[in-house]
Amino acid sequence: MTDDSVAVKPLLTVVRGEPTPEQLAAVIAVVSARATGDGAGEEPPVRSLWAAPVLRTPLFPAPGAWRASALPR
């Protein structure tokens, strides 16, 4: 029971230019590969140590605090 009167919206539309069939095939292959990728092969992003709250000590306003912020403890 297929209803042929239902309009199907295209997934991709060429807005400008006249791409060759090979160019369209390449774009469709890349888009479909990105859409179906489950991300299992990708590694999680590495978090920079600059963002680690354990390594950063809080600074409090006090006389000489700017000087103490650059000195090692």
- Assembly state (oligomeric): single chain
> Which residue ranges are poorly predicted, with pLDDT under 50 across at least 5 consecutive positions?
none
Strand element count: 0
Number of helices: 2
Major sheet size, sense and barrel closure: none
Distance between the termini: 77 Å
- Describe the global form: elongated
User: Could you give the order of the helices and strands?
Assistant: HH
Task: Report what the structure shows.
It is built from 2 helices and no strands. The chain is elongated, with a radius of gyration of 28 Å. The mean pLDDT is 78. With 73 residues, it is mainly α. The protein has helices spanning 21-36, 65-68.
What labels describe this entry?
single chain; 73 residues; mainly alpha; 0% strand; elongated
Could you provide a short overview of the structure?
The chain is mainly α and 73 residues long.
Secondary-structure topology with pairs:
Elements lengths: L20 H16 L28 H4 L5
